[in-house]
Amino acid sequence: MKLIKRLLKKLLIKLNLVLIKPFNLFLYRSIDRKVSGFNKYLKKRVSLNVVEILKDARNSNKRIFIDCGVNEGFVLYMYRKLLKNYFSYSGFEIQNELINLARKKNPKIEIFNKAVGIENKLSTMYITKSSGYNFRGGSSINPKMVKVDNLFCKRQIETINFIDYLVNLRKIHSYDFICVKMDIEGGEYDIVDKLYEYYEKYNSTLVDDLIIEFHPRVLDSEEDQIKYKKKLNIMGIKTLEWV
Hints:
The chain contains eight helices and nine strands. By secondary structure, it is α/β, with parallel strands linked by helices. It folds into two domains: 1-35; 37-114 and 162-241, 3-Layer(aba) Sandwich (Rossmann fold). Helix 7 runs parallel beside helix 8 (225-235). It is globular, with a radius of gyration of 19 Å.
């Protein structure tokens, strides 16, 4: 009897989600993350990463956590809750409809409606209909990431030179520990290349810990993924697993 009740409850939740989705995608994603167990998994992953970050940052004086791909802001909130006031925070999100939500979840945190890239320019952003557990997750400035049948719309977005941003944090604002969460849907490879160029030129690493999701399908060959992991290792950038 208990099993039947649990099955009926799950079925009812799924039916409600189907009804909610066309009218409120924000609410749908929020409920879906909870009932699917994704939030529980996410909390565990964040907790494991925080242990490593705090250990790596223990001898630093000024620390910052940068979230590239803030979305609705719930992941940044989770990291802030555990890292507390040991860190400063900033974030970037390309979907303008999410900025106020992200800022509300993370008051007083500077969250930019900009893309991170390797030069200052206007880029075309490709917004998905839906993907994963985030609101229009998978949206990107890399056209290879968004399939035609999942394209919601195209927009223009201001893109910043993320290398210059990091250099400014190091040299002007004197941050001696920089942790970056990078979930930018295929844009990560160009940034790693530029980080490596900077390292070779100045023998200096701009990122200490990097929480990253790779998207090897944008590469010419998935075997190239090994090259990028090697570059990060040579620079001494510690990579932490992301979802």
